[in-house]
From TrEMBL:
Protein name per the record: Cytochrome b5 heme-binding domain-containing protein
Entry similarity comment: Belongs to the cytochrome b5 family.
Keywords associated with the record: Heme, Iron, Membrane, Metal-binding, Transmembrane, Transmembrane helix
SMART domains: Cyt-b5
Listed transmembrane segments: 118-136
GO molecular function: heme binding; metal ion binding
Superkingdom assignment: Eukaryota
GO CC terms in record: membrane
Cellular compartment(s): Membrane
Source species: Vigna mungo (Black gram)
InterPro entries reported for this sequence: Cyt_B5-like_heme/steroid-bd (IPR001199), Cyt_B5-like_heme/steroid_sf (IPR036400), Cyt_B5_heme-BS (IPR018506), Cytochrome_b5 (IPR050668)
Amino acid sequence: MAEPRVFTFSQVAQHRSNKDCWVVINGRVLDVTRFLEEHPGGEEVILEVAGKEATKQFDAIGHSKAAQKMVLKYQVGVLEGAKVEEVDMNDDVVEMESNSKEMSAFVIKDGANYNKSISFYEFFVPLLVAALYFGYRCLTVPQY
Ligand code: HEM
């Protein structure tokens, strides 16, 4: 396998616009220019770390495994002095597919919880209104 290209921090720092955007994640230098528009978290967050080290910010979000594998797609080289593991891209493609299934299952599950909390309120709110109304009536109806 060919040696990856090695970049210094100052070389990376020259690519920090939305027309030419590089970031460093885990020692990998990534050209994410064409990914900016597609990024589910929006382009602004990536532009804030454009031309810089972005590992901390990337990890802080708790990106999915699929997102971590996606990083490899945009790699143009490695940062000078960084230790970077070699990864087999063929494995990654398979895992990325299975992860997207995981993600859609999560969305459906989340939707079911949302519906459950809606029906909880639909049941108790009218009950509470009725109880308040009867309470009010009992207190305000004149007692003969
Ligand atoms: C090449 C680098 C990056 C890739 C491939 C990537 C990929 C993704 C993907 C696939 C998602 C959807 C959720 C998930 O699968 O985890 C996502 C969400 C997000 N990303 Fe990134 N991302 C990158 C860099 C960054 C950086 C550097 C930041 C912050 C500075 C960031 C902030 C976010 C945020 C805020 C979200 C939304 C999370 C949410 O809605 O819960 N991403 N990213």
